[in-house]
Write a structure and sequence with these properties.
This protein is mainly beta. 11% of the residues lie in helices and 44% in strands. It is built from one helix and five strands. The mean pLDDT is 86. It comes from Virgibacillus byunsanensis.
Length: 82
């Protein structure tokens, strides 16, 4: 997928993904980090790493994987109302 950085932040996208990772850094000590990715067919917003808004400039079907996971009854999703 090819992205082009754009100015501004568009709050509402079709999907909002939160990826949470927890790693053990010492005995009995863990570090938890999360990243938010808001996306739709044409744009992606990223909250960490390279934060900002990006336009999808390549011809991809990047939502196909997400949509197939949403429809998969074996995946346990946590839904938020906000």
């Amino acid at each position: 997928m090819e992205l082009k950085k754009v100015e501004g932040y568009y709050k509402y996208r079709d999907y909002i993904l939160q990826i949470v990772t927890t790693n053990q850094v010492k005995e009995d000590h863990y570090s938890t980090e999360s990243i938010y990715i808001d996306l739709d067919n044409g744009y992606i917003n990223i909250s960490e790493g390279y934060p900002g808004s990006y336009e999808v400039v390549s011809d991809t079907n990047h939502l196909q994987t997400i949509e197939s996971l949403v429809e998969n009854e074996e995946v346990d999703w946590d839904y938020r109302d906000d």
